């Protein structure tokens, strides 16, 4: 490995029209190849004008510095490269060569918009948070969490509440669900959620009957229990509909609907409620 002199502190300036995180990661990776040396990293993020870039370069020129930049705007890149060359500063374009390579093999044009990777990351973490939320507040667990939800799904057992919540979670929507069981009063929090945020699911008794029978078979249980009794199913659905009417929430019939179709309807209802 090469050894850098400790006699003078040198600086790596990270210039970016976004947060500058990518440039800093590259700088740290490069620095790890050296045994020692007084090299420090100084980040200059969110550069939006030629004046800001010129000020950063003049500052860098006061000491022994190298410039790493991740500017995506062509006009700002030109300013940086011209000024850095005039000041005799070592400057390295981190993003440009890779963007140019991708353009040449794809015949696509770059968007040249700062901060896109952070927007992607934010969406990803929002999705993960929503999935964790759906798991935590599935099947009526921790009712106090209902007031934190973007959407609350309610309905009788096997009305596709959980699959719907998980699908919504993958769209970044925090969805909780509450089962409606005739012998168990719904949690008080369910009636405190704004009605437009609550969606009731209904399903035809004959289809629910078949779904429950198959569920019992899969569990190795006799399909003759009250859980898959038609009279009992009708009573449950009537009870569930009564609760939904008391809440004043929209009701969706999910009979023979794909989860994606139901989710689209849920989001349509939710957005209308928010905008009203």
Describe the global form: elongated
- Report the mean per-residue pLDDT as an integer: 88
Helix content: 40-55%
Main beta sheet strand tally, sense and closure: 4 strands, parallel
pLDDT < 50 runs, ≥5 residues: 1-6
Output the CATH topology of the largest domain.
Rossmann fold
Give the helix/strand class.
Answer: alpha/beta
Q: Main sheet: which strands, in order across?
A: 2-1-3-4
* Gyration radius, rounded: 29 Å
> How would you spell out the order of helices and strands?
EHEHEHEHHEHEEHHEH
What portion of residues belong to β-strands?
5-15%
Count of helical regions? 9
CATH class of the largest domain: Alpha Beta
What's the number of domains?
Answer: 2
Q: Architecture of the largest domain, CATH level 2?
A: 3-Layer(aba) Sandwich
End-to-end gap: 66 Å
What is the number of E strands?
8
């Amino acid at each position: 490995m090469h050894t850098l002199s400790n006699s003078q502190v040198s600086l790596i300036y990270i210039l970016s029209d976004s947060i500058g995180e990518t440039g800093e990661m590259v700088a740290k990776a490069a620095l790890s190849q050296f045994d020692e040396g007084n090299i420090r990293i100084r980040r200059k993020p969110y550069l939006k004008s030629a004046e800001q870039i010129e000020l950063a370069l003049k500052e860098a020129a006061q000491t022994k510095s190298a410039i790493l930049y991740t500017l995506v705007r062509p006009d700002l890149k030109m300013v940086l490269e011209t000024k850095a060359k005039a000041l005799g500063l070592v400057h390295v374009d981190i993003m440009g060569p890779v963007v140019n390579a991708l353009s040449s093999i794809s015949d696509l044009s770059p968007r040249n918009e700062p901060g896109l990777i952070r927007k992607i990351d934010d969406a990803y973490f929002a999705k993960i948070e929503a999935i964790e939320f759906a798991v935590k507040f599935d099947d009526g667990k921790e009712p106090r969490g209902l007031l934190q939800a973007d959407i609350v799904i309610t309905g009788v057992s096997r009305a596709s509440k959980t699959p719907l919540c998980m699908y919504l979670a993958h769209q970044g929507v925090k969805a909780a669900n509450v089962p409606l069981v005739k012998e168990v009063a719904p949690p008080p929090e369910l009636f405190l959620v704004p009605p437009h945020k609550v969606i009731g699911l209904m399903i035809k008794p004959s289809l629910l009957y078949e779904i429950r029978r198959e569920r019992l078979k899969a569990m190795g249980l006799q399909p003759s229990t009250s859980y898959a009794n038609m009279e009992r199913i009708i009573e449950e659905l009537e009870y569930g509909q009564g609760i939904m009417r008391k809440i004043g929430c929209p009701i969706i019939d999910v009979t023979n609907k794909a989860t994606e179709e139901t989710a689209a309807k849920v989001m349509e209802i939710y957005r209308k409620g928010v905008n009203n």
